[in-house]
Amino acid sequence: MSEKRTEISDLGEFGLIEKLTHSFKSKVASTHFAIGDDAAVLERDDEYYTLISTDMMLEGVHFNLMYMPLKHLGFKAVATNVSDICAMNGEAEQITVSLAVSNRFPLEALEELYEGINHACDQYNVDLVGGDTTSSLSGLVINVTVVGKVKKTDVVYRSGAKENDLIVVSGDLGAAYMGLQILEREKEVFKANPNIQPDLDGHDYILQRQMKPEARVDVIKILKELNVVPTSMIDISDGLASELLHISKASKATCHIYDEKLPIDAKTSMMALDFNINPNTCALNGGEDYELLFTITQKDYETIGANPNFTVIGYVGQEGEGNYLIDRQGAAVELTAQGWNHFKD
Ligand code: ADP
Ligand code: MG
C-alpha cells in the first residue's frame, strides 16, 4: 500500500465500486455480464441465463431493531434481493443466507428472523439452499444472495434505453422514506419518555412500505402478459434520481422527467407536508421503495399508459443533454443523486 490516502467518502459508494473493480476482466466463458447491473448474468443453456445478486444489511446502518421486528427484517432481506432479479426481468429461484450474530440474540430471536425469511421464500417461490453463520462483536449482519433465471430473449439491462423511449415507474414513490421518518420520530419521543406509547395509528400504508417492502414480481408477470419487454430497467432502492442517473450513464443517454407526473400516494404527500418535506423530494431521493423503473419504446406507450400499475413520467434524451426534472412552468432542474450514501453519514 502506498502512502497516498483517498477518503472513501470522497468517492461515494459507486465511485468506490468502480475504483475497486475496473481492472477485473472476465476470463470465464460463462460470465456473460459481470459488474454494473442489478444482477450478474451467466450462461445456463440455450434458452435461459442464470442471474445472481447479493445484498448485505447491517444493524445500525440499514436497520434499527428498536422498531424493525426481526420477522420483518427477514422478509425484507429476501424481498430486496428478489427485487434485483425482477430488475433484470427475471424470476428468483434460490437464496443463501449468511448471518453474523452477537450473543445478545437468543435462539428465539433468530427463529423469528427465519420465520420472516420463510414467509418470503413461500411468497416468492424460492428455496433457501445454504448460507454461513458466524459470530459478530457488535450487532447483526445479514447477507442474502439470490439466484434466478431469465429467458435470453427477455433479459433487460440498465444500458438499453434509447433516445425518445418513455420512462415508466410501477406503483408509487416516497412512502418508504416517510415511513422511516415516522419511525425515527417516534423513536426519539420514546427515548425522551419511555412511558409515551408510539403514535403510529393511521400510518399503516407508509409504515408497511418501509417495514415490509414487496418485490414487484407481479409487475414482471404483467409485462409478460402485455408482451412488453422494457428497453432498460432497474429497481428503485436508492431513490428515483439516483436510479435514473444509473440508467442514463449505462445507456449513454439522458433522462427528462416531469414533476407533476411523479406517482406519490396522497398519504405520503400529507405526511411529507407534516414533516415540512417537499413530497417530490421523497420520491426523488427517498430510498427503499423497491418499485421498478424502466424505459419502453413509443410503440408500447398505449399498452403501458393504459395500465393502472404504471405511470409514464418522462422520456429519454440524447447523451450530453443533462438529466432534468421539469416543472409545470417548463423550468428544468438538473437531477442529482442524493440517495443513501452510507459513506457520508
Ligand atoms: P443494487 O443497488 O442493484 O443492489 P449495487 O449498487 O449494490 O446494486 O451494485 C452495483 C454493481 O456493483 C452490481 O453489479 C454489484 O454486484 C457490484 N458490486 C457492488 N459492490 C461490489 C464489490 N464490493 N465488489 C464487486 N462488485 C461489487
Ligand atoms: Mg438493484
List keywords for this structure.
seven-stranded mixed sheet, binds adenosine-5'-diphosphate, single chain, alpha+beta, 24% strand, globular, binds magnesium ion, 10 helices, 345 residues, six-stranded mixed sheet
Explain what you see:
By secondary structure, the chain is of the alpha+beta class. Helix content is 34%, strand content 24%. Strand 1 (31-33) and strand 2 (40-43) form a beta hairpin. Adenosine-5'-diphosphate (ADP) is lined by residues 17, 20-21, 35-38, 55, 84, 237.
Quick description:
With 345 residues, this protein is of the alpha+beta class.
Question: How is this fold's topology laid out?
Answer:
Layout: H1 8-21, E1 31-33, E2 40-43, E3 48-58, H2 70-86, E4 91-101, H3 107-124, E5 127-135, E6 141-151, E7 166-170, H4 175-192, H5 204-211, H6 217-225, E8 232-235, H7 240-251, E9 254-258, H8 266-274, H9 279-285, E10 292-296, H10 301-305, E11 310-317, E12 324-326, E13 332-334
Parallel strand pairs: 4-5, 9-12
Antiparallel strand pairs: 1-2, 2-3, 3-6, 4-6, 7-10, 7-11, 8-10, 9-11, 12-13
Helix pairs in contact: 2-3, 4-5
Adenosine-5'-diphosphate is lined by residues 17, 20-21, 35-38, 55, 84, 237.
